[in-house]
Design brief:
InterPro entries: Barstar, Barstar-like_sf. This protein has a single domain, classed as 2-Layer Sandwich (Barnase, Chain D). The chain is globular, with a radius of gyration of 14 Å. By secondary structure, it is of the alpha/beta class. A 4-stranded parallel beta sheet has the order 1-4-3-2, with helices on both faces.
């Protein structure tokens, strides 16, 4: 299997094992967003606030999320966003998940146009894999 960081980011991808170690070897920053407690837009925004280390000034809406993901002042040029427990969230909240993916993929495309990389990596727990 090809190593995910050997190619430019391409949509939502499965996180490799040892994602943090691999990212460090490629000099890619890693941030983790945990979806375990996400059940609505507000808790989704709180998950990003915590995962990205944002301040309480974060607007907690789609435009604000896009802005923080694409801000060259606060994000490294090469960033892997690890989406933990995402598959289960996506199954339970299809509409919210689709809205989020639109924002994430728009940010990924905008960054690629600037020569910057945003990997969107889905990390699944073993229990999630068994329930497919």
């Amino acid at each position: 299997m090809m190593q995910v960081f050997s190619a430019p980011p391409d949509g939502l991808q499965h996180a490799p094992h040892e994602v943090r170690l691999l990212a460090a070897g490629h000099q890619i920053g890693v941030r983790e967003v945990v979806f375990t407690a996400v059940h609505d837009k507000e808790t989704l925004m709180l998950a990003f606030l915590a995962g990205l280390g944002l301040t309480e000034r974060f607007g907690r809406n789609w435009d604000a999320l896009y802005d923080v993901l694409t801000d060259p002042q606060s994000r490294p040029a090469r960033l892997a966003l690890v989406l933990c427990d995402y598959a289960l969230f996506r199954r339970r909240h299809a509409t919210l998940g689709a809205q989020l993916e639109t924002v994430l993929l728009d940010a990924q495309r905008a960054l690629a146009a600037e020569g910057r990389d945003l990997w969107l990596l889905i990390e699944e727990r073993e229990s999630d894999l068994r329930h497919r």
